[in-house]
Design brief:
Elements: E1 5-11, H1 15-26, E2 31-35, H2 42-47, H3 49-68, H4 83-108, E3 111-114, E4 116-121, E5 124-128, E6 134-144, E7 148-150, E8 163-164, H5 166-169, E9 178-182, H6 186-197, E10 201-205, H7 217-230, E11 233-235, E12 238-246, E13 249-256, E14 263-267, E15 269-272, E16 276-278, H8 285-288, E17 311-313, H9 324-338, E18 352-354, E19 359-364, H10 367-372, E20 377-383, H11 388-392, E21 399-405, E22 411-418, H12 421-433, H13 438-442, H14 452-462
Parallel strand pairs: 1-2, 1-6, 2-3, 6-17, 8-15, 9-10, 9-15, 10-11
Antiparallel strand pairs: 4-5, 5-6, 7-16, 12-13, 13-14, 18-19, 19-22, 20-21, 21-22
Bound molecules: flavin-adenine dinucleotide (FAD) and 1,4-dihydronicotinamide adenine dinucleotide (NAI).
């Protein structure tokens, strides 16, 4: 095989693409990954999951020191926030992580090609470097993992300084006095939390009648109350009809989604966070006749095959949950299929976590979905107020809710609002993966005192025999 000829060429070095490339190489396939950003890790490592969590951790530490340590008897004096140092922490975390992927590529003998990939024909990818130089890569299989980009709001121009997307909101140099977030979803609440903790007055304008509209209804309600108590202002059932830059500020016009009187809101920073859209610009899909669906996603079958033999697609660009771990699972499954193995992703057991505090973690069906699908279920709920560890941590907000089949007791869904909810959810994801019953989790010994006991108790509650409530 010549230097530019591979078994597999992956276009896009995000969690879908880089993981597919590593797994394919592990399985003995000669693999290259083409990435145009100049750094590996995609949206997630560069402008998504990792930088947002670095800012969430830093702002959490500030808020805890400023407002919560006193309750433990810890006296810290005047607490101040150095936003530039916080951004420095974030940049270092991002750079360490992206360089880590380069190391993993070397270790696994994946060829990293820097440049924009364009499919010119099946098995043929043209790579254009930043300086315009072109090269050609040939491969038996092309994997598209080009991810997603911010969904724009018509009539609202993002300048990444006053009117920002998540990328601009991750890079603000100072804390705005006022911030309006358009969209009460994951990005809006996570990045709204970062800047609220540092002192911004945050107003969330949400088109629907609740925040986190895809979560379980009880979770949305609970988080609305908790976040309002933290200082968030919510304007639900409200649409933004315009947002214009006016000097160093922005002026938004909003009105009730159902129609009614318009109102103006001024803000130092406006964050547009109304979802993400698949990214296929410059990819050359038209050269091979791959049509996207009405929303721009690339249609694939159960084996991630596009309509063209030898061209596959995974991750955000194919739709479904736009989550890094979902993209990674697809990357592994596809690589294994390409190597003749039986890769598989269980889409019923994909966790989703919102890293506010308390965190929100969910897997499987919501109560609303079970009702709509006519599935008989039992619900078990346990509040953190009744958990000894949570009390000792002063972290008693939230609950664990487990939904199980009324006849088989199999776990169908789980929803947690609480401290470290994301980590606590893992055992329930595992339970669903193994087809376990709520009684299986309830009969498993959990260490005491632990937050995990709330998970056990919620499962006991499904059976009608919680011990501590
Ligand atoms: P991407 O990560 O988008 O990677 C695609 C890559 O392809 C990009 O680097 C792009 O430069 C490259 N590319 C595109 N076209 C070409 C081309 N023609 N040639 C070469 N390269 C190309 N998910 C979570 O699970 N947990 C989180 O906490 C989380 N937090 C997030 C926070 C924010 C602010 C955002 C915006 C997203 C967050 N996500 C989170 C979502 C997560 O980032 C995505 O689901 C994930 O990155 C998708 O992976 P992917 O590989 O499909 O695509
Ligand atoms: P989202 O889909 O989570 O939320 C968008 C919100 O905007 C919804 O509540 C929607 O009803 C609302 N909305 C839509 N149009 C609107 C309008 N015109 N006016 C007002 N509100 C409007 O999308 P978000 O927050 O932009 O995140 C994008 C993706 O990134 C998500 O799919 C998510 O999976 C991923 N992500 C994941 C994170 C995590 O796993 N912790 C963190 C951040 C992002």
């Amino acid at each position: 095989m010549s230097e530019n000829t591979f078994d597999v060429v992956v276009i896009g070095g995000g969690p879908g693409g880089y993981v597919a490339a590593i797994r394919a190489a592990q399985l003995g396939l000669k693999t290259a990954c083409v990435e145009k950003r100049g750094a590996l890790g995609g949206t997630c490592l560069n402008v998504g999951c990792i930088p947002s969590k670095a800012l969430l951790s830093a702002s959490h530490a500030y808020e805890a020191a400023a407002h919560h340590y006193g309750a433990f008897g810890v006296k810290v004096g005047k607490v101040e926030m150095d936003v530039a140092a916080m951004q420095g922490h974030k940049d270092k975390v991002v750079s360490d992580n992206t360089k880590g992927i380069e190391f993993l590529f070397k270790k696994n003998k994946v060829t990293y090609i820097v440049g924009a990939g364009t499919i010119t024909a099946p098995g043929q990818v043209k790579v254009t470097a930043k300086d315009g130089a072109e090269s050609q890569v040939t491969a038996k299989v092309i994997v598209i993992a080009t991810g997603s980009d911010v969904t724009p709001l018509p009539g609202v121009e993002i300048d990444e300084e006053v009117i920002v997307s998540s990328t601009g909101a991750l890079a603000l140099k100072k804390t705005p006095k006022t911030m309006v977030v358009i969209g009460g979803g994951v990005i809006g609440l996570e990045l709204g939390t970062v800047w609220r903790r540092l002192g911004a007055e945050v107003t969330v304008v949400e088109f629907l009648d609740r925040i986190l509209p895809t979560n379980d209804g009880e979770v949305s309600k609970s988080m609305h109350k908790i976040l309002a108590k933290q200082g968030f202002t919510f304007k639900l059932g409200t649409k933004v009809t315009s947002a214009k830059k006016a000097g160093k500020h922005a002026v938004l016009t909003v009105e009730p989604a159902a129609g009614g009187a318009a109102e103006e809101i001024k803000a130092d920073v406006v964050l547009v966070a109304i979802g993400r859209k698949p990214y296929t610009e410059g990819l050359g899909l038209e050269n091979v006749g791959i049509a996207t669906d009405a929303r721009g996603f690339i249609p694939v079958n159960g084996h991630y095959q596009t309509s063209v033999p030898g061209i596959y697609a995974i991750g955000d660009v194919v739709g479904g949950a736009m989550l890094a771990h979902k993209a990674e699972e697809e990357g592994v499954a596809l690589a294994e299929m390409l190597a003749g193995q039986h890769g598989h992703v269980n889409y019923d057991a994909i966790p989703a976590v919102v890293y506010t505090w308390p965190e929100v973690a969910a897997v499987g069906k919501t109560e609303e979905q079970l009702k709509a699908e006519g599935i008989a279920y039992k619900a078990g709920k346990f509040p953190f107020t009744a958990n000894g560890r949570a009390r000792s941590m002063n972290e008693t907000e939230g609950f664990v809710k487990v939904l199980a089949c009324a006849t088989t007791d199999r776990v169908l869904g789980a929803h947690i609002v609480g401290p470290n909810a994301g980590d606590l959810l893992a055992e329930l994801v595992m339970a669903m993966e193994f087809g376990a019953a709520s009684e299986d989790v309830a009969r498993t010994c959990h260490s005491h005192p632990g937050l995990g006991e709330a998970v056990k108790e919620a499962c006991l509650a499904v059976l009608g025999r919680a011990l501590h409530i």
